[in-house]
Specification:
Elements lengths: L11 H11 L6 E2 L16 H13 L12 H12 L9 E7 H15 L4 E6 L3 H10 L2 E6 L9 H9 L5 E6 L12 H14 L2 E6 L8 H4 L1 H9 L3 E6 L11 E7 L6 H15 L6 H10 L2 H27 L19 E3 L4 H11 L1 E2 L5 E3 L8 H12 L2
Parallel strand pairs: 1-10, 3-4, 3-5, 5-6, 6-7
Antiparallel strand pairs: 2-8, 7-8, 9-11
Bound molecules: (2S)-2-hydroxybutanedioic acid.
(2S)-2-hydroxybutanedioic acid binds next to loops.
Length: 393
Amino acid sequence: MLDQLEAQAPDALLALIKMHAEDPRQDKIDLGVGVYRTNDGATPVFRSIKAAEQRLVDTQDSKSYLGPEGDTGFVDALKPYIFGKDATMGGRVEGMQTPGGTGAVRLAVALAKSAGVKRIHLGVPSWPNHAQILQDVGVETSTFHHAKADGTADIDAVLDAIANAAETDSILLHGCCHNPTGVDYSAEDWARIADALVAKGMLPILDIAYHGLGNGLDEDVAGIRTVLAKVPEALVAYSCDKNFGLYRDRVGAFYMIAKDASDLPAITSNANALARANWSMPPDHGGAAVRTVLRDEGLTKQWLDELGEMRARMRRVRERLAAADNEVPGLNLAALGEQNGLFAILPLSREQITKLREDHGIYMAGSGRINVAGLHEGNTPKFIAALADVTAG
Ligand code: LMR
């Protein structure tokens, strides 16, 4: 039977990693997959995480099974950073560890489907895996425009999508540092989205994969806290890939916010059953390292400093690109200065993206998405000159 299978195209972003790795040019630039890079182009292990891992090596006395909910200490330690002072939301929130943010999104979509959600609204462009997960889980996808051509969020499009949705629909929203546009909703936008969700009685799924990489830990989740303060129920997917640099350790968390605390046992039992059938139990190591960091004042301070350095560096790259707006007319580089996180979309054609790769050794997603963390003082002039070259005339 296996010989009946049709070949699938490789994931475009993952294929890009391979292409970049095989390019022998010394001055090639990788603006593809979303990993943070230092000014030297490295993606080092956080010092706080290294220290936590060392403590785990020295003290961990068992690697026996934990259960489908994973490391609950890790899940609880993240709560104040996501939900704020009342980290339990009056006892209405329960969480579990997942294999990366992807596992959390998958669980959110599958649980929403179990609860009767038939269709999920998705602002596009979005992280390509969102649509793939929706399709794989078997819910219908309905799309609306996330951003406008001027590089700001299309608030009317999301409000229309909610207003025209069925009550059994859900909506998947990026909490901050939108992937791939970098365009986030304003505080006022979030308040309007929250009111619209309440009016429709719609279940939101909030995906937070870049917490702390935009404007600050509290600032980046202010919008979703506005939503959570108003809606009766919500699902939150969280990734520690970027903000703890744990990419390959697959560290994520999934939170369920119930209308009433008494609903939580039934909700979590469904999530546990789904997790058990999908991956049984999440990998422990990265979650244990995050828990170790967050339970230690010194390591937490070190992590906050490291995250702050990353945020400041990306802001500097964005400012540098925005300042080059005049050098490359037509790309609206100025808007990048107002956007957040790792990503931005440049309005380049397929031919221009191919020319950047072939002539200049600059790798970016076919959508025109760039990972701004792939740029630094040394290679930004080359990047700007290459953009001017491929857009000339
Ligand atoms: C990205 O969008 O580049 C990252 O989230 C990595 C991934 O898994 O796609």
